[in-house]
Amino acid sequence: MSALPPGSTIGILGGGQLGRMLSQAAAQLGFDVCIFTDEPDSPASRVSAKTFVGNYLDRAALTDFARRVQVVTTEFENVPAETAEALIEAGARVAPTPAALAIAQDRFDEKSYFQSAGIVTPAFKAISSQVDLDAAIAEIGAPAILKTRRLGYDGRGQIRIKTTADAKGACEKLGAPGILEGFCAFEREVSIIAARGSDGAVAFYDINENEHTGGVLSRTTLPANVSDQTIIEAQTAAQRVLEAFDYVGVLTIEFFVMPDGSLVANEMAPRVHNSGHWTIEGALTSQFEQHIRAVAGWPLGPTTRIAAIEMLNLIGGDANDWPQLAADPTARLHLYGKRDARAGRKMGHVTKLKSS
Amino acid sequence: MSALPPGSTIGILGGGQLGRMLSQAAAQLGFDVCIFTDEPDSPASRVSAKTFVGNYLDRAALTDFARRVQVVTTEFENVPAETAEALIEAGARVAPTPAALAIAQDRFDEKSYFQSAGIVTPAFKAISSQVDLDAAIAEIGAPAILKTRRLGYDGRGQIRIKTTADAKGACEKLGAPGILEGFCAFEREVSIIAARGSDGAVAFYDINENEHTGGVLSRTTLPANVSDQTIIEAQTAAQRVLEAFDYVGVLTIEFFVMPDGSLVANEMAPRVHNSGHWTIEGALTSQFEQHIRAVAGWPLGPTTRIAAIEMLNLIGGDANDWPQLAADPTARLHLYGKRDARAGRKMGHVTKLKSS
């Protein structure tokens, strides 16, 4: 594809904080942004030139949106297949490819794909009945974790099976097609943020070391405490996925690091990722600008990290500490403009740059 | 004043690139932004939650605007006195103070104020007739420069008087009340960007060394090639102005550096400034965030510079080089979303971070 000139309009599906930061990066490069969201008064719409508020299955609205933008991208992977289809039928260029979105929407498909690509995953089995679950536990063992195949995020839709006794009734409680995943006795969690341009060029950011609290990312630090061999393994996996899907944009893969330094893939996100928020201040090109560059057909920018990093998420009531955070000279504060500090909700983040 | 909580709305007068970058900084801190501009489809409005398009003298529109925002600030100094008055009558808090805006609108008042504050300026005389001009040239000598007292910027409204012969008819050609300024045989041009919080705290950015082409800033570099004594002199002048006006926000003063290192004040801008655009990538707190922090009653952020800097303005057709600039790994590209690359128009800028 030829590069979109400044002044073109980039369409973003989704109005949350990722769309907000993508929109700001697009504006910096001289693009207009049009948001499509089902949420009135969304964080992203408040920093964007135009917003369509509509249902993701409303073909007429999607067609109208598609005709006003030069490319469509997304801040979330759970874009219904019908949405992507309607956009493409209306003539929109969609990046990354809907095939990558579809794989990432289903934990079973995703892990099956990883295995086919030679990327190690935890043991897993598809679960559609209690009989399946009992058989899977017999095979994989406990502890294990039962997750919905679709629409789970930030620890939602998950049931921990510590002993085989926990399996009783778990399938009914889950209430949706599931996947049982074997427990991984990992040493730490990391993620890699990679990007592929429309010219096929691939770039990697430094590996993120991640800590979760209640299933939600709470802290990311760099440099990660991993070996060069582990870094190469993560890059190899990311490159394989990027090329298999002829992917254009930013892609994230989360891994468990085992005691021997080997990696076990947990999940992928076909988008910018919370563990990459530090790149706004900490890298020469932010993950948001990188994604916009890729989907606009521009060359990728340099991913060089300029300092050691600590990124802290502000979850729910954490954001009430804004007076202290605003007064902390080491904290670069980002607030997403969400009206309601509900428990577990990502309200903002803080990035701290440290001398390496 | 107490600090405005995130979710408050900040009003900005003006829809240009300074308003655009202020708006993006405000959004990052969780504020909504409402732009008031007389320009439909302005660069700032395309990244802001709401825009009022109206005349700056339309009291009804200004009253409506004032009631929807918690503080009003500005991206330009030529805000009509009637505008500030209408906003204050409608109950708006306006920062910085209209008195500082008023002084900066008139080159004669500004230089008179500088002198009263012990800040050295070029020789100057108010000019309202050819008789005035001839007398002023007899006193100040040539070369000199005749400028309109009001509404000049980027070299507009200026007539160079190289020899006394150039004075003939110059007053009529200027067509407005003027000021004759003596020529300064300066060695270089610098500017200081300073900020004062509502708590009275003052912060300075490192001094900018500036090059102009055709009266328009073309290049800013840091560190500036000046002595510590010169830096202290600039900081002292800025602090004096900030305190005299009980100023809240970012203030810029441009100086000539004389061969002996002493400073001669050229002009002040009661706002963020083109020579400070490098602070987006090059300082821990950008000038835009700093200004928003100040007018919102937040503590100032740290101004530490993290690298040596070269900032290049993209004027008029320069922005057509975007494909080359996008591919340059040393260039952080900013485009302002202006539709029309007219000659002399500021279309964007590029910041290069270099190892110090």
Task: Give a structural overview.
2 copies of one chain form a homodimer. Chain A has helices spanning 17-28, 59-68, 81-89, 98-105, 107-116, 130-140, 170-174, 228-244, 279-282, 287-295, 322-327; strands at 9-13, 32-37, 50-53, 71-74, 124-127, 144-148, 158-161, 178-182, 188-196, 202-204, 208-213, 216-222, 249-257, 263-269, 308-315, 332-335, 346-354. Chain A is of the alpha+beta class and 356 residues long. Chain A folds into 3 domains: 9-94, Rossmann fold (3-Layer(aba) Sandwich); 123-182, ATP-grasp fold, A domain (Dna Ligase, domain 1); 188-354, D-amino Acid Aminotransferase, Chain A, domain 1, CATH 3.30.470.20. In chain A, strands 9, 10, 11, 12, 13, 14, 15, 16 and 17 form a 9-stranded antiparallel beta sheet that branches. In chain A, a hairpin with a 5-residue loop joins strand 9 and strand 10 (202-204). In chain A, helix 1 packs across helix 10 (287-295) and helix 2 (59-68) crosses helix 3 (81-89). The first copy, chain A, is globular, with a radius of gyration of 20 Å. The first copy, chain A, starts with 8 loop residues before the first strand and ends with a strand. The mean pLDDT of chain A is 95.
Give the helix/strand layout:
The structure is a homodimer of 356-residue chains.
Chain A (H helix, E strand, L loop, with lengths): L8 E5 L3 H12 L3 E6 L12 E4 L5 H10 L2 E4 L6 H9 L8 H8 L1 H10 L7 E4 L2 H11 L3 E5 L9 E4 L8 H5 L3 E5 L5 E9 L5 E3 L3 E6 L2 E7 L5 H17 L4 E9 L5 E7 L9 H4 L4 H9 L12 E8 L6 H6 L4 E4 L10 E9 L2
Parallel strand pairs in A: 1-2, 1-4, 2-3
Antiparallel strand pairs in A: 5-8, 6-7, 6-8, 9-10, 9-11, 9-13, 11-12, 12-15, 13-14, 15-17, 16-17
